[in-house]
Amino acid sequence: MTTHDGKPFNREMLESLVRRRCFYLPSFEPYGGVKGLYDYGAPLCGIQTNVVNEWRKHFVKREKMFELDCSVLTPYDVLKTSGHVDRFIDWMCKDPKTGELLRADHLVEDVLEARLNGDKEARGEKVETQEEPAKKKKKAKAMNVKLDDELKKEYEEILAKIDGYNGEELGLLITKHRIKNGDNEVLPPVEYNLMFSTTLGASGPAFLRPETAQAQFLNFASLLEQNQNEMPFASASVGKSYRNEISPRSGLLRVREFLMGEIEMYVDPEGGKKHPRFEEIKDVELAMLDRHTQTAGKTDVRKIAIGKAVADGIVDNETLGYFLVRIQQFMAKIGVDQSKLRFRQHMANEMAHYAADCWDAELLTSYGWIECVGCADRSAYDLTVHMKKTGAALLVRETRKQPLHIEEWQATLDRKKAGPKFKKDGKAIEAAVDALTQEMREKLSLDLEREGKITLEVPEISAGSVELEKELIKIEKATRIENTREYIPNVIEPSFGFGRILYSLLEHSFWTRPDDAARSILSFQPSIAPTKVLLVPLSKNTDFDPLVKRLDYKLSDLGIEAKVDASSVSIGKRYSRNDGMGTPLGITVDFQSIKDATFTLRDRDTTKQVRASEAEILQAVLNLVHERETWADVQARLPAFEGQEVD
Amino acid sequence: MTTHDGKPFNREMLESLVRRRCFYLPSFEPYGGVKGLYDYGAPLCGIQTNVVNEWRKHFVKREKMFELDCSVLTPYDVLKTSGHVDRFIDWMCKDPKTGELLRADHLVEDVLEARLNGDKEARGEKVETQEEPAKKKKKAKAMNVKLDDELKKEYEEILAKIDGYNGEELGLLITKHRIKNGDNEVLPPVEYNLMFSTTLGASGPAFLRPETAQAQFLNFASLLEQNQNEMPFASASVGKSYRNEISPRSGLLRVREFLMGEIEMYVDPEGGKKHPRFEEIKDVELAMLDRHTQTAGKTDVRKIAIGKAVADGIVDNETLGYFLVRIQQFMAKIGVDQSKLRFRQHMANEMAHYAADCWDAELLTSYGWIECVGCADRSAYDLTVHMKKTGAALLVRETRKQPLHIEEWQATLDRKKAGPKFKKDGKAIEAAVDALTQEMREKLSLDLEREGKITLEVPEISAGSVELEKELIKIEKATRIENTREYIPNVIEPSFGFGRILYSLLEHSFWTRPDDAARSILSFQPSIAPTKVLLVPLSKNTDFDPLVKRLDYKLSDLGIEAKVDASSVSIGKRYSRNDGMGTPLGITVDFQSIKDATFTLRDRDTTKQVRASEAEILQAVLNLVHERETWADVQARLPAFEGQEVD
């Protein structure tokens, strides 16, 4: 992977930078830390708040979604019904010698990748170690053995499909390719549920939610009422979800506790799931990797306009397509490198148990392509199972514009005569008549015409069946008018993992000065940067203090986060330190400032400076932070400042 | 309790309103709900986001705190060390007949309040039923029995101190006053731990955090480094915490999962915990109920300037006092009724195990005075116990401005001679010398002078003691210069429960139209209201649509949440419905608008309207929402519109 200026990306440098500046840290470090749990320090916490706010603006507010804040603690019954108790699992292999529990797909992946690397070394090709986390390397060492061409191809195809295998298939791969944990054979893959369980006071067993979706679905009836019974509409939720990985790795990319943003768009399953604003975005092109390409063992991405993708059936429907485009626009807004974004369709056996179609927005990082947003068509799965279980009306009742005329066979028992005749059996017989299918009714109407009576099976009565004469029953074709339509909505769900997006953003924003590779920069968009302006007095001379304080208060009044760095190192060092925090702008207070109240304004990415009056500088800051001007604009209209950055 | 216009507050009306408008709902309602878990619907979720943003602005940004986002999942060891495993408990009484578990303090409170109400009825006084939740009433019925004057006074004193009793004391009260659960005797109070427990994959037992504080403390060393080793500073965190109530009641006021905002301000314990900005706020008056007043069984509140309260020792120090004032200012900003806010000091036995002093900001609701913010001086408790347990350096090392000259007894072993003489015992002997206290050294120096040798206990060597002659050891008074000072900071912690603040805000904002008690209004500040502007076309006439859409898009561009209500009910009904959602402003699009592009702007609280051009109306909205103008200002400068609200 390369940085935006085409140099090789260096993960170790980024990791050292974010560690030094406390972007994130292992949680509970004095206690040795806990795998898969991280604390966000002030810089990343600030970025997270800005990204979430942007998300709210881009999705929730613009599309007038109903935002909910639901309980994380979720009773057992809810997640039993949703299928998570039985199917939210990973496949685990136990190493019986060491007692280690290993994710079966990770084990296969590690070993095959190591063999492929060994093959490359044997062939004298370059091995891209950057692509793999340090931990993997330790587990499965490259053996420097050349592989048969056929076998090499087979390994590559397995790796391309690695997310799509079930437990049995993984077991077969492990046997066939003699995959081991080091030198140890492993036991066949078994299910391991990924939810954290706990107990609610006196109210029984519960889990920490694996997604925010279920609680949103259970509020569907209230939401529909709030929306004055109009379809379609969406609910949304931002909150933490949990996944009890047995032994997580890959830093921020695979954690046990994570912030999600989930949108549930409720749509009518009839009429092709059209979206009212699809027209506006139909020409936007996306980089797509569809199911068929992957099933063929390939990873070639095609650029396709979403309108064409939906028309050609590559993307199932307009609503799904609309969100894919909106996701791409969101990624652009927060500063994700658009050349490192692709949309990958899930393969059939890779999809979650509730999904009918699913596209992941994946971002390219030094760990490979990472799923950051899942965009699934959950069909009517969840609403249906909850309705069936609880009887709650999780459906839409709408008045038909045109009443529906249904021609059908109607079967009517004459109650006045049947009642006295059948006495206690009457109810069961009536129920049996009501339960007759259209086909049965048609057949029985012929019997009735031909023989003047019919024989009806009624298992509930002692005789087992009953004869009904013409006088007792009427069966005839008639037209019924249906004014109301009832249906269970389908759900299109874009689901965002903010932690993964933030990590990718760190990698995409990272580069080093062309003239000094030791100087790291994080080029965040001004709207996303945790601090917008660095205030730097030239030295510790106290004459600068009132000016620094005044600028600080004025920026604060303008709602712009500023930070003062009055430490005793050189101005150049202070700027460089804050380039590594991603602070886009800097204002220097120098002796000239004391004389004429002018200040210099510095741009992080170009390190160029301009000099102007306080009012002009503040206005330029405001324009830059709110993205009403670019640095080039500011540079064009304000006088340049050519003073050296003293090192 | 009364509403802001002096009428009796009606909780049932508010509850019906918030239910109808989906402010909050029991979580997982189709499954019967779970006690103590609530989902926030769109209106309350929007208010919460606004209040949290205001909190970030008011505290985190203004005071440049380090905001952290830490793990909710917390390993056992951390909370064992912090004392929560042993002391984060409630006292429970079991009813052996029904198997019910009851909070001991609630039981005492319920029964004594019922008896006092019975006494009032017997005396023919009015019983304020509004003050108590419906559920309490059911449990302990008023008996209509007149109490002895002495006994009545004793009951009132117990209730004033109810939060301050431990398990033993509650047990004694239950025995002495024959307190029962209905007709059943209860067993003596026992401890019940309030944390949710779970297991972290292969990493062992854990809890859901009961507070965000512990993870913040464990980051202290990194934070201090980020702050370039300067003191004082603060960290802050917004996130969910958990409390496994056995059987919660009182709606949003007593929940199992809640959003907290916690600030940890790290201060030097020496020099009186002064605050650099105390001077700015020292004249602000607070309504205070101190410890002594309560211990005397009274509840009289005094208005005292914070400067005087600190000077008189009512509030322990400036930093604590500074935050009390900042809390009051925050409450004012979000619209809490200032006449329903008081600061109550914890009594000695009521404080959490870590606290040295604590003041609660309490808000008056129909449930009584509710603790919404706790402001505690946690002393050095937490940092000390974690440092002791883990060895992490959770302390400050600072260079003394004036080096400290310490006169002390120094004892020095002559290593060159001692080494060959004592061989393998040498190290133990040297350690024993180093471990000598100042008193011992002084005494031994006299021995050495008198007898030319000393006898030193060294339990680690086989002989158990050793003789050291003058040639081997020197003991003398000397001056040591200490350039560095080491100390463990104290922590002042304002801790906010957002759910309780939001509920109180609902009660404080609620009133009904003077001319129509059926019309409910929620008078939120514009900055807090979930929707700022209601857009109302006069009728379903499609000629209004382009104008409504244009206004909607323009408001959206200005960052102002607008909502269109084009339902077919009258304009009056639509306004009234949105008064109950707390929407402060309304714009009507009528036939005049089509002709001349003027619109009416309506104020929720007065129902008055003005009419002006689109630009003027949008500018007025912007000013009102950002609180740069009041409605009175707008009304004074724009022409009034006298059209009736058609009902």
UniProtKB/TrEMBL annotation, chains A, B:
Homodimer. PANTHER family: GLYCINE--TRNA LIGASE, GLYCYL-TRNA SYNTHETASE/DNA POLYMERASE SUBUNIT GAMMA-2. Residues 137-168 form a coiled coil. The keyword Ligase applies. Its main location: cytoplasm. One of its GO terms (biological process) is mitochondrial glycyl-tRNA aminoacylation. Residues 150-514 form the Aminoacyl-transfer RNA synthetases class-II family profile domain. One of its GO terms (cellular component) is mitochondrion. Belongs to the class-II aminoacyl-tRNA synthetase family. This is glycine--tRNA ligase. It catalyses: 2 ATP + H(+) = P(1),P(4)-bis(5'-adenosyl) tetraphosphate + diphosphate. It holds the Pfam family HGTP_anticodon.
